[in-house]
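Per your request, structure below.
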């Protein structure tokens, strides 16, 4: 139920910014990385058709017919245990980043142990940005943090004084090399997508 509420709250956050964007004539900045390539197009087609993810020999997974590498990870995704992660340098709002991750059958990354946190910090440091989006949000209930992938919120690494919900509008989580921060979801930031901890896409 909390997941449904979180997704509803995230949708409301996304919808609330649309009239402002329309009034200002804001257009998305589609860099080469954000433009739908063949992999993203195939992923969207799979999502649209609501087809299950095909499974190949020895349990390797594919997305839109493209063979994955590592522990069921798509090419370019980094494997850690049973999970797959990828950093995207194209800044997006938290909600748009979550939607983008979903095209790949993933979500904004959840973090469940120091090893995952170290890996994601390393990925974040490669973006050239101080903070990158990950999948935590307290949009359902202030200071009750949930992961967008529905996994248990069983590990934290908040930076000093965080979360602080400054101006009462910081509902989304960003990761830095110094810890986690709550930030306004409408900020454009690079982001890290990840598969669920149980290895499901």
């Amino acid at each position: 139920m909390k997941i449904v509420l979180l997704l509803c709250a995230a949708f409301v956050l996304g919808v609330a910014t649309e009239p402002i964007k329309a009034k200002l004539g804001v257009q998305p900045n589609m860099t080469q990385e954000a433009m739908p390539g063949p992999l993203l197009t195939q992923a969207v087609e799979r999502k649209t058709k609501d087809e299950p993810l095909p499974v190949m020999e020895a349990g390797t997974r594919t997305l839109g017919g493209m063979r994955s590498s590592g522990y069921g990870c798509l090419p370019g995704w980094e494997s850690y245990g049973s999970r797959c992660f990828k950093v995207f340098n194209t800044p997006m709002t938290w909600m748009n980043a979550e939607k983008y991750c979903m095209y790949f059958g993933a979500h904004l990354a959840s973090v469940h142990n120091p090893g995952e946190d170290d890996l994601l910090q390393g990925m974040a440091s490669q973006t050239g940005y101080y903070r990158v989006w990950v999948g935590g949000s307290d949009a359902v209930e202030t200071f009750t943090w949930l992961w967008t992938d529905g996994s248990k919120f069983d590990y934290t690494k908040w930076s000093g004084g965080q979360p602080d919900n400054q101006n009462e509008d910081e509902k989304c989580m960003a990761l830095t090399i110094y810890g986690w921060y709550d930030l306004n979801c409408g900020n454009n930031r690079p982001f890290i997508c990840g598969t669920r901890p149980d290895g499901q896409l």
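The beta strands are 62-63, 66-67, 78-80, 83-92, 107-108, 132-141, 144-147, 170-176, 179-184, 189-194.

Regards,
D.
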